[in-house]
Design a protein that fits this description.
Belongs to the short-chain dehydrogenases/reductases (SDR) family. Keywords: Membrane, Oxidoreductase, Transmembrane, Transmembrane helix. GO terms for molecular function: oxidoreductase activity. Helix content is about 50%, strand content about 15%. By secondary structure, it is of the alpha/beta class. The strands form two sheets. Strands 3-2-1-4-5-6-9 form a seven-stranded parallel sheet, sandwiched between helices. Strands 7-8 form a two-stranded parallel ribbon. The longest helix has about 35 residues, at about 15-50. It starts with 15 loop residues before the first helix and ends in a 7-residue tail after the last helix. Bound molecules: NADP nicotinamide-adenine-dinucleotide phosphate. NADP nicotinamide-adenine-dinucleotide phosphate binds near residues 68, 139 and 233.
Length: about 300
């Protein structure tokens, strides 16, 4: 997942015109060719190494009470599969569990807040003691809204959940998988991790940091035969996007993700055109990208609509 960041600054003692020209030359003739080369090399390598992995038997899903997490649990539900369903709302988890049990899965409800890091660690370890986890889907998250009047108040909530909460979920299970030398961890980030409109500041900076965390974890975990996957959804119809019926359904999205996880694709992103759009925005010069993003939203009458 190379990122061609046109963000290079040259020594400030140069004449401004020389600064601009040298920045352009460095980006065009060094950064761009190297990034493109590595991009093709990495993708070719992934295709060559591609193989099917066995279906996981024990799956732990956070944020399983609604949206993508619930759809993911239902997609994996079948006889012989054990599901750990984690979120704060026990009643909604119960409803998801009932649907999964009809499909033959054995379900365990784990009512927990991923911001309560110490309790979460104990809870996850207890679950893993009884049911060693094959696949962790670290998915719980919130949007924090896009209202510029409240954005200075929401940073802690969004970071505690979307960044620290996901890391606190992943680490205890990763340690266990590392000892067992097997397992798969899928971390649900967002295309906003590439780039997001300015009012989604906490959401996008938390997701962007989660991307970096996942990239590093992938590298470290590969030594212990633990597979790590980064999920970057575009707009999916869930509570987070006000259940917008024009967006891809969570059930369809979960099917795509399952297939790609079986192939162990590192970076899973869908719908493709949205992913490409945010990726291109991320490569624009940093000072103009937010204005371009907002102008495009204005022209297309498509606001970046998060609850
Ligand atoms: N929908 C999209 O377009 C979209 C796009 C990109 C990325 N994503 C990501 O996908 C993930 C799932 O979101 P969604 O779209 O499925 O929205 P959703 O329907 O609102 O689901 C969010 C889930 O996270 C759980 N959750 C929130 N805070 C939690 C906490 N502190 N502790 C435990 N569980 C918590 C919620 O359950 P409780 O309320 O029961 O705790 C719920 O199950 C999020 O990480 C989101 O950022 C979504």
């Amino acid at each position: 997942m190379p990122n061609m960041q046109f963000y290079f600054t040259v020594p400030p003692n140069l004449h401004p015109i020389v600064q601009v020209l040298s920045s352009m030359i460095i980006n065009l003739f060094i950064v761009l060719p190297v990034s493109i080369g590595l991009f093709f090399w990495d993708n070719a390598k992934q295709l060559i190494e591609k193989r099917k992995y066995p279906e996981p038997k024990v799956i732990l899903v956070t944020g399983a009470s609604s949206g993508i997490g619930a759809a993911f649990a239902k997609e994996y539900a079948r006889s012989g599969v054990t599901l750990g369903l984690l979120s704060r709302n026990r009643e909604r988890l119960q409803e998801v569990a009932e649907e999964c049990e009809i499909k033959g899965a054995k379900c365990y409800i784990i009512a927990a807040d991923i911001r309560d890091y110490d309790t979460l660690k104990e809870t996850l370890e207890d679950f893993d003691n009884q049911h060693p986890v094959d696949l962790l889907f670290s998915n719980a998250g919130i949007s924090g809204g896009e209202d510029d009047k409240v954005w200075t108040e929401t940073w802690k909530k969004v970071f505690d959940t979307n960044l620290n909460g996901n890391i606190a979920t992943v680490l205890p299970i990763y340690e266990r998988m590392k000892r067992r030398k097997s397992g798969q961890i899928c971390i649900n980030s967002s295309v906003f991790g590439y780039f997001g409109p300015p009012y989604s500041i906490w959401y996008r900076t938390a997701k962007s940091a989660l991307n970096d965390f996942t990239v590093d974890l992938y590298y470290v975990a590969s030594k212990y035969n633990v597979r790590v996957n980064l999920l970057l959804p575009g707009y999916i119809s869930t509570n987070l996007t006000r259940n917008n019926p024009n967006m891809v359904s969570a059930a369809y999205f979960a099917k795509i993700v399952k297939k790609q996880l079986e192939d162990n694709i590192f970076c899973i992103t869908y719908p493709f055109y949205q992913s490409l759009f945010f990726y291109i925005l991320s490569t624009l010069p940093k000072r103009v990208a937010p204005s371009v993003a907002l102008a495009l939203a204005e022209i297309t009458k498509r606001p970046y609509d998060l609850k």
